[in-house]
Amino acid sequence: MLDNTSTKSLEDFMSFVQLRSAGQKEFHQAVSEVASDVLPWIRNKSEYRDARVLERLTEPDRALSFRVCWYDDDGELHINRGYRVQLTNAIGPYKGGLRFHPSVNESVLKFLAFEQAFKNSLTGLPLGSAKGGSDFDPKNRSNAEIMRFCQSFMSELYRHIGPDTDIPAGDIGVGAREIGYLYGQYKRIRNECVGVLTGKGLEYGGSALRSEATGYGVVHFTQCLLKHHGLALDGLTVAISGSGNVALHAAEKAVEMGAKVITLSDSGGYVLDPDGMSPEKLAWVTALKTDRRGRISEYVEEFNGEYHAGQSPWRVNCDIAMPCATQNEIDNDDAIQLIKNGCRVVAEGSNMPTGKDAIQSFIDAGVLFAPAKAANAGGVAMSGLEMSQNAQKRSWSDDELAQCLESIMLEIHDRCVEYATRTEDGRVNYRYGANVAGFKKVADAMLSFGVC
Ligand code: NDP
Ligand code: 2IT
Q1: Can you list the alpha helix ranges (DSSP code H) found in 21-163?
Q2: Considering the domain boundaries, does residue 265 fall inside one?
Q3: Which of 110, 131, 289, 440 is catalytic?
């Protein structure tokens, strides 16, 4: 066992983490990004250092993995691996999404659960942190296959979750359809109608605005950041990656607020529409992706524009970049190109889309950088409000929830600003502010519990 590494350099701290989680590179990346801000902040705060709070947070409360067997439509048996990483319940029950994607492994879920701890803390709501999912690939699977997979997955997961214990939700590959199948199976097993999942359908206990909340929240946060620096969204050009839940709702809200959205993407490539995407064009993409489950390349057959196969949208001229697809979408070369092309703001819709050196390039160049744990927290915040509605057994109106979302995003912005460092010309370092503000609440709760 290494000495108390909270008192040492980032390198020493990371060697402690790497020793205990060999090969988990996404997890190391997420921890290193947080530790590079939190370690200097706790340097003269012995209460956190002596209790080794940051190190304890790098060891999940528990990480479960389980076998998931299911039959495809041809009667062939498949075996996938299911996971739930319960990172900390210091400030509330474990809370975080489920991801179904072939890239899912323990490292990816530990990074996502680690990020979730600080994000959930920033919302101001009593939400602990977890993440789960499977290496199951839902692409090109029939509804019946998705249903059988979800039923088999929940047949094990149900024993580890509960409305006051752990409340999963959606993420990549898990949307309204999957949440329906998962909740249906939970109900069959437990014979209980409770708020054990969020992102539920409106007919069976879901919250208005949950599906929109992450993307809308990214745009609300961006507006707060722009306003704080004397700027406005109206008339700015936005490049967005992804064409799933987060990307399409971010695009919709950005257009509503007067911005011009010129790109969307999927894992095949990106489309550039120099005229900008209207609400009608975005509605067409939503139908393409949710009803027909088609490819973004079809956009240019329907509308004007260019399709760039195998590329991401970071070579275009834009004022704002909003990565909304997956982790590590923007490397340092992309960052340098975006800066050259006039990008002034990066707002992360996806989790950890920007590499550590790319973040530093943005900050050094004076680009305003909104980290995921702050900018995309609207989704889990609305999940928290879904839990409150389920506990009260009532539903709040669209207007009430829209107002709650806007004010939560403003509060998150202001929490970041309160703890952030600033450049000489007054630009806020939101990465630092989000990491420290997110850490402080979880750490203070952990200190109250003693050593556990
Ligand atoms: P969806 O499954 O709805 O959409 C994901 C999008 O990203 C699709 O367009 C998909 O393309 C693309 N994508 C996924 N993996 C890759 C990859 N390896 N390379 C290129 N493109 C890829 O997921 P969400 O919109 O819900 O999630 C997007 C991001 O936002 C994730 O990082 C998620 O963790 C984060 N997030 C989601 C929240 C939510 O409430 N849903 C809340 C907060 C964050 P294709 O279809 O071709 O795979
Ligand atoms: O990354 C995330 O914040 C989510 N996928 C949403 C989690 C949730 O519990 O709503």
Answers
A1: 25-42, 46-50, 53-57, 106-122, 143-157
A2: yes
A3: 131
